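Predict structure. Input: F5/8 type C domain-containing protein, 138 residues.
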Amino acid sequence: MFDLALSEAGAQIILATSSDDKYPPENMIDGKDDTFWTTCGLYPQEFIIKFTSLVSINTIQISCYNVKKLKMEVSSDDNQAFKTLAEKELQPSDSAPQSEEISGRNVKAMNLRVVIESGYDHFCAVYKICVHGNAERS
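Output follows.
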């Protein structure tokens, strides 16, 4: 098992509802702990990660700040609707990033959509998202 959501593994951010030149969405999948994507103040906010092929997701770990409620959804190809994998309400954190792990239950996915439904402030940040699993064999 390895991190399927790394840009060096071929993963791409194909949609993000906000972007800042200093804190672009690609920062979430660059493998670094000190970079992040920031939202622009309105909710909901979302981003979609596209994997290089169909994958089997074991766990998803997200490191973020000021996120109150989020939803994770998957689709098994580009033409199918997204299905909810998990919905979580995160506890606030004063100075450290929030960290949450979600079981993927070995669900098959080509795309992962993360919807930040609300935050503890006008802006929030996602430092890193790791998707642990395996590529499906064809």
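The chain has a mean pLDDT of 94.
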